Amino acid sequence: MLRSAVALLSAVLMFAGPAEANKVFVTNERSNNVTVLDSQSWEVIATFPAGNRPRGITISPDGKELYVCASDDDTVRVFDPETYKELHTLPSGPDPELFALDPSGNPLYVANEDDNLVTVVDVKTRQVLAEIPVGVEPEGVAVSPDAKTIINTSETTNMAHFINASTYEIVHNVRVDQRPRYAEFTADGKKLYVSSEIGGTVSVIDLTASEPAIAKKIGFAVPGILPEWLQPVGVKATKDGSRVFVALGPANRVAVIDAAKDEVLDYLLVGQRVWQMAFTPDEEFLITTNGNSNDVSVIDVKEETVIRSVQVGEQPWGVVVAPN
CA-to-CA distance for 132 and 192, rounded, in angstroms? Predict the structure, then answer.
């Protein structure tokens, strides 16, 4: 009986094997390519051309299409994440920088900084569904977990625009601090975090009331770092609602925030000019792009420590991890 149990356990372990690695895709805006990393070995496994000045990057929920904002080509390039071959392009409007996919995988919402628009693109028909006028220099884009609301942050207008995803009309505007860059919903849809690069803050917007309103502004202070270097850009919140991570640009730090209190707990030293971030699907790791040191940093989320850096291309900008 014991021998049979041991044999069965051995068979289970053999077939279970190690956890499957995920591909990590990093856009390099100066070298005009995408670097691919393995999330177990953290080695570079591929590099492929991605058009002129690739920045924003995302992947379809089924992992079959990789979308890249080729900003200087005024288009979104779509790649096969397995072969790295370009499949086709999508209309994007001029100078696409950041975008967000609907949770269903369609449509795609693209910020057009030069034209003060958010372009809505059907990724299946490859047609523009709408062009939504917003504030001056739109930058960040986010979609609510229930897919009913689109957020756009406009750098010069200093606002977060709340857009109805059915009518494509702005239904609320919330003024934040100077040069808002990124917007991140919590998984339960009750809060929205908006980073303001020049203002040096992250606005916490309460979404539980009849109208969205700022509940708190999170500031940052790092000994030995000039206040003007503390420039919040990328923001990522854990699914369990316990932590929010904020990339602080030229401060070369990622702030760790207690999401229950919206207070800073720690600052993690990463590479130079940390910009965007992405979790692995299990949220075991958080990857940051560091534009001036041409590397990514890997953060152990549970331990809240930086465990390694990996050299990639020139001026890494965006990052996304393939789903399981």
Answer: 21
User: Tens digit of pLDDT for each residue in 177-201?
Assistant: 999 999 999 999 999 999 999 999 9
The pLDDT tens digits of the residues spanning 129-151 come to 999 999 999 999 999 999 999 99
Order the strands of the 149-154 sheet from edge to edge.
Answer: 138-143, 149-154, 159-164, 170-175
| Per-position DSSP letters for 146-211, written without gaps between them | TS-EEEEEETTTTEEEEEETTT--EEEEEE-SSSEEEEEE-TTSSEEEEEETTTTEEEEEE-SSSS
How many CB atoms sit inside 10 A of residue 262's CB?
Answer: 16
Q: In terms of DSSP bridges, do strands 235-237 and 243-247 run parallel, antiparallel, or are they unpaired?
A: antiparallel
Residue 233 has which token pair? 């850009």
Q: Are 162 and 212 in contact (CB under 8 A)?
A: yes
16 sits in which H/E element: helix 2-16
Q: What CATH number belongs to 23-321?
A: 2.130.10.10
Burial class (CB in 10 A: 0-12, 13-18, 19+), 169: exposed
CA angle 293, 100, 308 (to 5 degrees): 30
Residues 180/139, Cβ–Cβ less than 8 Å:
yes
How far apart are alpha carbons 324 and 304 in whole angstroms? Answer: 23
Domain spans of the chain, in order of start: 23-321
Dist CA 152 CA 155 (whole Å)? 10
Please tell me the distance from the alpha carbon of residue 3 to that of residue 24, in angstroms, as a whole number: 42
SS3 state at 236: strand
Tokens read off for 155: 């750098």
